Amino acid sequence: MDKSIKQTDRPPYGIIAVLMIGAFIAFLNNTLLNIALPSIMEDLNIEAATVQWLTTGFMLVNGILIPTTAYLIQKYSVRKLFLAAMILFTLGTVIAGAAHIFPILLAGRMLQAAGSAIMMPLLMNVMLVSFPIEKRGTAMGIFGLILMAAPAIGPTLSGWIIEHYYWRMLFHFVTPIAFAVLLIGFFLLKDKKEKVDLRLDIFSLVLSSVGFGGILYGFSSAGSKGWDSPHVYLTAVIGFISLIWFILRQLKQEKPMLNFTIYKYPMFALSSAITMFMNMAMFSGMLLIPIYVQTIRGISPFDAGLMMLPGALAMAIMSPITGKLFDKFGGRLLAIVGLTITTATTYIFSTLTQETTYNFIMILHAVRMFGMSMVMMPVSTNGLNQLPTRFYPHGTAMNNTLNQVAGAIGTALLVTVMSNRTESQATILGEEAMKGLTGQPTEAAMAQMQQEIMMKAMLDGINYSFFVATFISCVALALAFFIKRAKQEEELPTGNQVAPKVAAES
C-alpha cells in the first residue's frame, strides 16, 4: 500500500476528493446513456439487439478488467492508476461523441468502461485504508451520497438534453469536465509507490477474461437471443469452466491475481451473497419500470426520467445517514429493515395496471430505493471490515466483479421471464378474443384488438417479472438475519494460505 495512504488521524481528503470527482463523472455518463438508446437506434439506423451492446459491452469490459484491479492497486500508485483511468475515459468520451457509425461509438464506449473499471475499486480501496473501522460507515455513506447523485440526475438530464439537442451532446457535455478532472489529478496527486515484486500471471488473466466475460456475454444475450441459442449456452458454459479453472489456479498460487481465500471470512462471504441477490432484484426496477411507463403508458423519456428522480434522490440523501446508523447499530438491523421494505414494494410493483397513476409509481419507486439504500453500502462495508488490510484490493475487486455478474444474470433472467410470459399470455388472450368475435371484423378493428392484446400481455409479463424479483429479494432478506458485526481479522499464515480466526461479535 502507498506510504502516503495509511490509516491516520487525518485521512488524505485531497486524494479522496479527486478520486470521487472522477468516479462521479464515470457514473454520470453511464446513466446518461440509457434513455438515449432509442435516439441512437434511429440516428444510426440500428436494431435494439445491436444498440444493446452499448450496455452489454460496458458490462463485459468491466467484468474482464475489474478482477485485474487487485493486482494493479498493489503494483502501482494511486496517481498512476487514476491518470490511466481518466485518460482512457476521456479518450473514449471524445471518440464516442464524434462517432457517426456504430462500431466507433461502441469502441469509445468500451474505452470509457476500461477507465471506469479501474476507478471504482481504486476509490473503494483508498476509502478502506484511510478510515478506521469505527468511522468507516460514515465515510462510506458520504462516498455513497456523491456516487448516488450521478444516477439521480442522470436520467432527467439525459431526457432534457435529448429533447432539446441530440444524443452526441451527452458525450460533448462530459468531455470538458473529464479533461478538467484529468488535469486536477495530474497536478494534485503526488503519492508514490514503493517498488513491489509482483508479476501478472498472463494465463490467469486469460482465464479470468474468458470466465467472467463468457458468463456476462451469455447471460446478457439471453434476453434477446433466448436461452436455447448457442450464443447463450455455449459462451456461458465456456465461461463457467474457465472461471472454475481460474479459481483453482488462484488457490494454488502464492501471490494470486485475485485471492479467493477471502471467502473463508464468513461475513465477507455473506455480504457478497446478499449484494448479489440485491443487484438482481434492483435491476427489475431499473429495467421494467421504464418499459412499463414508456411502452404501455406512453410517457415521454423526460417525464420517465423525472419519475425515477425522487427514488434516486432518496437513495443519495439516505446514504450518509445510513453510514452513521451503520457505525452505531451495525449492518444487521439496517439490512433487515431495508430488505423488508424492498421486498414489500417489489411485490406491490407486481400488481401494476393500465390505470396505475404516475404519482403512485413515483412514490412507490422512491420508497423501494429508500429501502435499498439501507442495504447495499452497510452490508458491503460490514463484509470488507472483516478482511485484513492486505486483502482490501481483492475484496473490492471481487465485490465489483460479482455486482456486474449479478446484474447481467438478473437482467437476462427478468427479460426472459417477461418475454416468455408476454408470449404465452398473448396466445391465451388472442384465443379468447377470437372466440368472442361475432361476424367478420375489419382490418382496422383486428389491428386495434391485436395492439390491446399485446399491451395486456406485456403488462402481465412485467408484473410476473416483478413477482419473480420479489422471491429474489426474499432470499436476500433471509440471509440478512445471519449478519453479525464484523471485526477485522488477524492474519494467521498457514503455508501459502491465510487461515482466518472466526471473530464476529453478536
TrEMBL record:
It is a multi-pass membrane protein. Residues 15-488 form the Major facilitator superfamily (MFS) profile domain. Pfam families: MFS_1. Signal peptide: none annotated. Belongs to the major facilitator superfamily. EmrB family. It is found in: Cell membrane. CDD domains: MFS_LmrB_MDR_like. Keywords: Cell membrane, Membrane, Transmembrane, Transmembrane helix, Transport. This is DHA2 family efflux MFS transporter permease subunit. It comes from Cytobacillus spartinae.
